[in-house]
Amino acid sequence: MFLDQWLDSFLHTTPWTAFAISLALNTAVFAGSLFVGALLQRLFASRAVSPPPSPITSHELALAACTVFLNSVVLHAGWLLWRAKRVHLEPQLEYEFAALLGGLFGAVLIALVMDGLMYALHRVAHHRLVYSLLHAPHHRYSNVRPLTLFVLHPAETLAFGGLWLVVLLVLQPGWWAIVFYLSLNTLFGVVGHTGVEPIPPSWSRFPLLNRIAGGEVHARHHQEPTRAFGFYTTVWDRLFKTE
Ligand SMILES: [Zn+2]
Ligand SMILES: [Zn+2]
Prior knowledge:
The chain is mostly helical. 64% of the residues lie in helices and 0% in strands. It has one domain. α2 packs across α7 (175-192). The model has no long low-confidence stretch (mean pLDDT 94). Residues 122, 126, 135, 139, 221, 225 line the site of one zinc ion. One zinc ion (ZN) binds next to α5.
């Protein structure tokens, strides 16, 4: 398959080429996120959960460019771990239904682990000793737009990336679980910064579904930074009474 060959060449290429590929992939994820975000804003315009943002500033653009670059550095670190056989990603992929389903379950498991760890990290980021140094740039924009997802202090980007690499080393989830989890993570990040709520109101009647953090939860966090710290679910906010 084309993907197997491509992964095999990626694994055996030079570090500079690998970094260039990482940069290209992250730029594509950035562009795709802005596109999906704009699409969601258009589709769910009637369900706005945040006031319209002010015009884009050069400060936002500079931080977003920095985030894309640092995400590429994190991906490159992942590539180095893969090459050193510390992370096991077999280039020969399985395309059977069972392998894809296993990947989906793996992704949900990673998301649940990361949800708890990121909630804890987010609470630390809001501690008065850390907030003004690291997290304030993200909260400078209380009226979110898809670009806000990438408006992060460089140390925050590296902290999230570092946490992800540790989880990767410990769980060794395999190729499909990683691909599905990273897609899920990007989607949640985009939805949280669209300023609209794509989740149907009827979901609030169903257990588990009503715990998924949609657009409103993170938009509310930008409006009221002492509440709603969860990224994928509201489970931890409920447990620690920060809903
Ligand atoms: Zn945010
Ligand atoms: Zn915050």
